[in-house]
Amino acid sequence: MNDFASTPKLVLLPAVDVADGKAVRLTQGEAGTETNYGDPVDAALDFARQGAEWIHLVDLDAAFGRGSNAGTLRKVIKQVRGVQVELSGGIRDDRTLEAALESGAARINLGTAALENPEWAADVIGRYGDVIAVGLDVRGTTLAARGWTREGGDLWTVLDRLEEAGCSRYVVTDVTKDGTLKGPNLDLLRELTTRTPKPIVASGGVSNLDDIIALRDLVPLGVEGAIVGKALYAGAFTLAEALDVAGY
């Protein structure tokens, strides 16, 4: 237990995914699998009250190219002052990036744009540095784009390109695990830590407190944090319990 107590903390980012103005969770990122969990502001405030330092906030409609929840996202960010927000979904050009930055988000997570418009992504990484993270959403070693509806290239090829551009952080999701409560892909995360010295935020599959402990064991290798979604909404554990085993 002493060894575990000395392991650096795993940064937890409870997820608030927004579709049609509601907090929802998807299974394996598929449109049409939404389970509705009510008001995103209430969800975010609940996480803040339990001690969250970060919230991972996603505009699913923007990610799928079917609309925007920008007003709702701004309201969430405003209500949880003191909690840092990582914002994701549909940020693909200067206009959407500037709007995301103006919303008060501490970090912007680029997804599809980093795959489909590498020159723009490299320019943005150069301009904004640590404010920009890149989401690598994978099935096997093939990246997924456009709300996970299209293939986006080979993981290792894209990673090399992003390393060259100076990307400061990666948010890595195993699409096959996301929303399934079947455990994170630890092997993928371990391999990624051998390919980049940059911090990695793990996403997808966390189902119980043991999964958080397993992810915390990877912190010395370079896994900085973990996004937790469905397990919290399904009541598998509370955020306060998760923060405790994560080392807060």
UniProtKB/TrEMBL annotation:
Its EC number is 5.3.1.16. InterPro entries: Aldolase_TIM, His_biosynth, HisA/PriA, HisA/PriA_Actinobacteria, Isoase_HisA-like, RibuloseP-bd_barrel. Pfam families: His_biosynth (PF00977). The active site is at D17 (proton acceptor), D137 (proton donor). SUPFAM superfamilies: Ribulose-phoshate binding barrel. The keyword Metal-binding does not apply. Keywords: Amino-acid biosynthesis, Cytoplasm, Histidine biosynthesis, Isomerase. It is an enzyme of class 5 (isomerase). This is 1-(5-phosphoribosyl)-5-[(5-phosphoribosylamino)methylideneamino] imidazole-4-carboxamide isomerase. It comes from Microbacterium salsuginis. The gene is priA.
